[in-house]
Every structure is written in structure tokens, then in C-alpha cells.
């Protein structure tokens, strides 16, 4: 069975149907991109997996475990959003440590894990800076570090590069892919940017108007009639 299984997923906001029958899977260690135009339901699908919004039917299983009854913090999922929303009064290191403090991870281990993950995103030198002292790219790396430090079994990336300028976007894209490979992290990445999808993914799910209309490698997506 696949690592992440989404079956027959239904979601509406009030009377507005976002999708009524989504089926997809992600294998362990795979980097899958959900590509589609704005408004087609990509974010909503990620939010359903993360438990940030209720689903109206269907199943979501991770490692054979039904996720739907679990609150977000019990799902073992890390998520990064387009806007990084760091705590302004905490340093980079404190921002990253926060999730572990909530999990009551002992102080020494917490410090060790924070240092390790800051190294991974190449931010060790900026550990004592405050968010207002960071560039957009640096802030997004803090957000990434913050989600990685809890060692999630699934990473959800919701347009994490869209707010950044082109040069930084390309650099961070490569960095995300390197980290994902290094950690063997199963990743579901959302974007409306074809180039991002083509360069990052093991596999692309093409989404349109609440339906997954194609599923395959980047090459397959562009060699079909
Ligand atoms: P995408 O991520 O592909 O841009 P979204 O998942 O954000 O798409 O949105 C899918 C649809 O659901 C859109 O029509 C959007 O307007 C609607 N929608 C998203 N969030 C909400 C919400 N909180 N309440 C009502 N409608 C929403
Ligand atoms: P990058 O390209 O690495 O994402 P920038 O080119 O935007 O970053 O910034 C270059 C350097 O200036 C970085 O080391 C960053 O930490 C620093 N910097 C950016 N904005 C500020 C600020 N408001 N206060 C202090 N240092 C800053």
C-alpha cells in the first residue's frame, strides 16, 4: 500500500463544492507536485491532509493510519506556507525551537536539534537574528527549518516560493530538493508554476477545477498529445 493514500475525498465550503472525488497516492520518499491554476483546490487539499480544515467525505491514510480523527499536531505533518508568519519577537533559533518546546522535548536535545536543522538550511550564522533582520528567502528557510525540526513523516509545501524574487526562488528551490533527498522526506508540493513543477518533482499531479486530470512524470506530462 502507498505511504499516503487519499481516497474519494470530498470538500465543500458551505454550498461551494471544491472537489467531490479526489484520489491520489504518494510513495515513501517521493517528491510529488500538485500543479494547477489558482482556485482549483490545491491549498484546500493540503489543508485537508494537514487537518487544518474538515473534510466532507473520503479517506486520508498515512502509513496505513487513518488521519481524519487526528488533530493537526498529532498527524506528524510539517507544513510551509507562502507567507512565513514567523514570531516577530523571537530569534531565528527561538522560532525554530518553539514547536519542540510545545512537544516538551528536553532542553539539551531541543538545542541540538535546532542547531542541526539550522545547519541543514544554511542559517547557522543567523540563529540570533530577529525576523525583521531577514530577507524573504532567509525567512522562508526559517519557516522550513521550523517544520523540519519536528521530524515530520510528511512535508506539505504550499507555494513556499511564490512570494520570493526570481533569483532567491531558484536557489531555495534547489535547497529544498537537496534537503528532501538528504532526509528522504516524503513531500507534497503545491504550485501554479510549471517550471517549478518540472524541475522539482518525481511526479506531477495536474489539477484543474477540483479534479486531478493527469498523473505522471514531468516528461510524460509534456510528451502526451
Ligand atoms: P488553490 O490553492 O488551487 O488556489 P484553493 O484551495 O485555495 O485553491 O481554493 C479552492 C476554491 O475554494 C476556490 O474557489 C476558493 O475560492 C475556495 N475557498 C478556499 N478557501 C475557502 C474558504 N475558507 N471559504 C470559502 N471558500 C474557500
Ligand atoms: P539573500 O539573497 O541571502 O536571501 P539578501 O540579498 O536579501 O539575502 O540580503 C543580503 C544580506 O543582508 C543577508 O545576509 C541578510 O541577512 C542581510 N539583511 C537583509 N535585510 C536586512 C535587514 N533589514 N537588517 C539586517 N540585515 C539584513
From TrEMBL:
GO MF annotation terms: ATP binding
Keywords assigned: ATP-binding, Nucleotide-binding, Transport
ABC transporter domain ranges (all copies): 4-225
The organism's place on the tree of life at top rank: Bacteria
This protein's name: ABC transporter ATP-binding protein
Species name: Serpens gallinarum
Range within the parent protein: 1 to 225 of 329
